Amino acid sequence: MFQRIRQQWRSTRSALVREGQEFSADLAEERGWFKAALWLVVIYLVATAAVGFYWSAQPALFDVEKLAFSKTSVTERQSLITGVATTAALIEVTETLLDKRGGYLTNDVLPPGVWMDNIPAWESGVLVQVRDLARVMRESYSRSQSQSVEDSALKDAEAQFNFNRNSWILPSTEDEYRRGIGFLEDYLARLIDSNEQNAQFYSRADNLRFWLGTVETRLGSLSQKLSASVGQRRLNTDLAGDSGARQATATPGEYEVKTPWSQVDDVFFEARGAAWALVHFLRAVEIDFADVLADKNARVSFEQIIRELEGTQTPLRTPMILNGSGFGMLANHSLVMANYISRANAALIDLRELLSRG
C-alpha cells in the first residue's frame, strides 16, 4: 500500500515538474515577445523623433533676382519685364511651402507631423503673406484703375490659396494650393509673352502703398503678440485720437496682455515664417518698382526694411524658444524677434508716408 502511495506521489510530482517547466517556457516566450514589442516601440519612437528633427529645418533664403532671370532670357535687371520678379517670387515661396523637408505639415494626421507645432506655425506665417500678396496682385497690381477688369487667373489663384489650410484629403490642401500655383504660372506666361496684352502688371506708387499698408498691419500685430510674451499692463487706446469714435461693446480702460506660455514658440515661428516670405517679396518688389523707388529717393529706406527682416532669419543657437523675463537671467527670443519686426514696421510706416508725397 505504501509502495502504491509512493508511486502516485512520484507520478504527481513528475507531472507538476513538467507543468512547471511548460509554464516557465510559456512565460519566457511571452516575455520574449514583450521585449521584442517594447524594442520595436522604442525604435519607432527614436526613428520618428529623428525624422521630426530633420523636418524641423527651415528653408534658406533664395536669390529672387536669379529666379526672375531664370524665367526669362534676359541677364540684366533693367531688361526684366515688370511684374516677373514679384510673380516668380510668389510662385517660388508657395512651392517651397509645399516642397520643403517633410512637405506641408499643417494638415498632417500621422507622426511625426501631427506632433510638430513649430513648423506648422512657420507655415501659417508664410501662408498669410502668400494670401495677402495674391489678393493685392488681383486687386491692384494687375489693374490700371478701380473700374478695370481683374485678371481671371489671378482671381482663381487667390481663391485657391484661401482654401482651408488643414484639409488632409478630398481635397487635400496641397492639391488646392498647387492649382493656385498653376494659375500664377499661367499669368506669368502671358506676362512674359509680348504677343499677349491681357496680362498686365502696373508699377505705381499707389499700388505699392496698397500692399505695404497690408504688410504694416500684419507686422504690427505680430510685434504686439511677440511683446506680450512677458505680459504687461496696457492702456486701451482703441478710440484715441477721435472724439466721435465708437465701438460695439465697452472694454476696460486698462487690461493685461500676455501670450500663454504654451503658445510663445508658435508665435515666434509664425513671425519667423512671415518675415521669411516678406524678405523675398520685398526683394522682388524692389526690382519691379525700381523706378518708383528711385523717383521717391526711397531705395535706401526700402533696403533697410529688408535688412531688418533678414535679421529675423539668424539661425537659432538653442534647441528651444526661451521665454525669460525682459531683464531676467534667461534670454527672451520673442522680444528679440519683436525688436526686428518693430524696427522694420517703423521704417515701413515712414516709407509709406514718403510714397504718398507728390
Beta-strand content bin: under 5%
Query: Which consecutive residue ranges, at least 5 long each, have pLDDT under 50?
Result: none
Biggest sheet strand line-up? 1-2
Find the count of extended strands (DSSP E, 2+ residues): 2
Number of domains: 1
Helical region count?
11
Task: Give a concise summary.
With 358 residues, the protein is mostly helical. The chain has eleven helices and two strands, in the order αααααααββαααα.
Keywords for this structure?
358 residues; mainly alpha; two-stranded antiparallel sheet; 11 helices
Protein model, in words:
- The protein is an all-alpha fold.
- It has one domain (30-233, 255-356).
- It is built from 11 helices and 2 strands; from the N terminus they run H-H-H-H-H-H-H-E-E-H-H-H-H.
- Strands 1-2 form a two-stranded antiparallel sheet.
- Helix 2 (64-71) crosses helix 3 (84-99) and helix 8 packs parallel to helix 11 (333-356).
- The longest helix is centred in the first third of the chain and has 54 residues, at 2-55.
- The protein starts with a helix and ends with a helix.
Chain-wise SSE layout:
Layout: H1 2-55, H2 64-71, H3 84-99, H4 118-141, H5 152-161, H6 173-192, H7 205-227, E1 232-235, E2 254-257, H8 264-288, H9 290-295, H10 299-311, H11 333-356
Antiparallel strand pairs: 1-2
